[in-house]
Amino acid sequence: xxxxxxxxxxxxxxxxxxxxxxxxxxxxxxxxxxxxxxxxxxxxxxxxxxxxxxxxxxxxxxxxxxxxxxxxxxxxxxxxxxxxxxxxxxxxxxxxxxxxxxxxxxxxxxxxxxxxxxxxxxxxxxxxxxxxxxxxxxxxxxxxxxxxxxxxxxxxxxxxxxxxxxxxxxxxxxxxxxxxxxxxxxxxxxxxxxxxxxxxxxxxxxxxxxxxxxxxxxxxxxxxxxxxxxxxxxxxxxxxxxxxxxxxxxxxxxxxxxxxxxxxxxxxxxxxxxxxxxxxxxxxxxxxxxxxxxxxxxxxxxxxxxxxxxxxxxxxxxxxxxxxxxxxxxxxxxxxxxxxxxxxxxxxxxxxxxxxxxxxxxxxxxxxxxxxxxxxxxxxxxxxxxxxxxxxxxxxxxxxxxxxxxxxxxxxxxxxxxxxxxxxxxxxxxxxxxxxxxxxxxxxxxxxxxxxxxxxxxxxxxxxxxxxxxxxxxxxxxxxxxxxxxxxxxxxxxxxxxxxxxxxxxxxxxxxxxxxxxx
Length: 519
Known about the structure:
This is Na(+)-translocating NADH-quinone reductase subunit F. The protein is an alpha/beta fold. The protein has 16 helices and 22 strands.
């Protein structure tokens, strides 16, 4: 792996004395210059390491980080430690934070740990957190400390598993949305969500981890954002997808707390993004939940009988995003709900009236870990339809901007936790995804951390990132005149325009045909 972003170089230097008056640090810089040019070193790094130099016998290992325009020394160690070259990659999600330790000599991921973002205690949705810190420095410091704690805890977990401590790592690459990176640096993100809807900054460049309170002497790099809703996590995922290198027209979809979409190829990239809401993490329902043990993650309705599976086969305690999508798709195909998402009473013994509204019982009291019926209500469905409509409309908006029809999309990259676990067939059935041949869909997993890993392995990708940022055309949904009309058209299953969903309508027709022939 010749072009890694962080290198460890072993040096055996001539000892000073006998008329050789070159300063210690200059001696190191001169040795590196032929291959690495004008290498930089900060005053902080000199202060941390200058006392060690005389004990080294002038045999030492230098840790270098490529900052795009120059290499910087971030650590000096006694002897030859070049066989131990480690770095971190992370996805700073608004709900979940994921971190990897990578061996840069082999490219192997040595460990991956994740946890729920500590910011969640200030609100499940990002807007609550933004309002919490507005014009309040104490609250802003509090949420910054929470953000840092995510990484400190994950570094500790990784060290427990691998024995490798943060001071053995030279660099740390982070993908996160625009608001998350503002919080990480202790910068108020109010204007991301309020006029003029522009972030305070898009780029952090490289900075020392200790500057913001991480127990880490190496350099931190956050993927730059393009706009308020189009964050570094999406730029990182775009890098991982390679769709900007291909001639085929591709769509990149990451639906989570926000919905972010990119459409393009190696000639152009257009994007749109906006709030999608917490629906996809099950946050719309009283018994909705994140994907963890006991969450209903898949639902099938076969011959009018509902069957569920749960994560870790635990007794059900609630339903997560992939389960909700399956449930709605199954109920639509089985005729338990109509195109508007409303229950059709009498279609199943599981459709009951509770507290003045219809609900579906997806797990009976005796099956559930909570010893109560687990339900998804009419109000839950209608809230979910808003999220589904938002995602559908963003895609329609981009397709219209190009003046094409959805069938011209040759590849669809589904990123993020939701895109990883959702059943593609169910997603198409309810109109969350366009009705395209199924082999065009790629479930790429966590695009944000994959892009961070790619950048660690190849420093040249720093230039690619800057090219992507300058070439993406960001279309503001606020200026889309017919956005609300499109939204209301998409608040049906799969859509008010049936011609957009031929395979789904075919399935519904064949079910109705079976029903009528059985009577």
